[in-house]
Amino acid sequence: GESVGLHLPTLSVQEGDNSIINCAYSNSASDYFIWYKQESGKGPQFIIDIRSNMDKRQGQRVTVLLNKTVKHLSLQIAATQPGDSAVYFCAEDPGNAGNMLTFGGGTRLMVKP
Amino acid sequence: ETGVTQSPTHLIKTRGQQVTLRCSSQSGHNTVSWYQQALGQGPQFIFQYYREEENGRGNFPPRFSGLQFPNYSSELNVNALELDDSALYLCASSLLQRGEQYFGPGTRLTVT
Q1: In chain A, count of helices (H) and strands (E)?
Q2: Beta-ladder partners of A44
Q3: In angstroms, rounded to a whole number, what is the distance separating the alpha carbons of residues B91 and B87?
Q4: Mean pLDDT of chain A
Q5: What is the predicted pLDDT for the residue at B100?
Q6: B interface toward A at CB cutoff 8 Å?
Q7: Tens of pLDDT along B68-86?
Q8: Which chain A residue is nearest to residue B91, measuring alpha carbons?
Q9: Percent helix, strand and coil across chain A, each to the nearest 5
Q10: CA–CA distance, A106 with A86 (Å, rounded to integer)
Q11: A104: helix, strand or coil
Q12: Which DSSP state fits B84?
């Protein structure tokens, strides 16, 4: 399949541990943020989103935290599983017409069994 | 699977040639965005089509152009290919301009 993120920062965690992936965004006018997961040979897959009027949002096993003061976003994955191994991207919507996303550089998550 | 399909899966072209990539959006989605993803990097926004009109454009030259058809499928055309155009080209569809985007698997373009 496709190789995604050959030279990306890598986070290696033990199966069952919690993972935290961080992202700094650039545009203070951005009002919508999304985390995507990209596996080899596939397009990015939506994980969770958050709007700028919130600072935390929880999904199934995932939590996104937004700190607008320092323009920082994080994705927390609870009880990380081997199937979580992928490249994770944060994306920001600058708030114009919508869905014209600016993606971060990505982090590779490797889960050790 | 997202329901967004792209063709072809892989393509090899020579510098200076032209290429057309195709995307079928998820049923009922009227907004299609195209992204370029170089190896080891995040996707970069090329342009977006909404109801057959270009709705916004990223920092890409005019030799990158597109179309959206009445059934909301879309094409990305790249003229005068350069080596740096080698990348994975992704399309994403959404029901609304600010709705959740669903990405296709991409087309891997190699320019030699």
Answers
A1: 0, 10
A2: none
A3: 13
A4: 90
A5: 82
A6: 2, 4, 31, 33, 35, 37, 39-45, 48, 50, 55-56, 58, 88, 90, 92, 94, 96-106, 108
A7: 999 889 999 999 999 999 9
A8: A43
A9: 5, 50, 50
A10: 10
A11: coil
A12: G
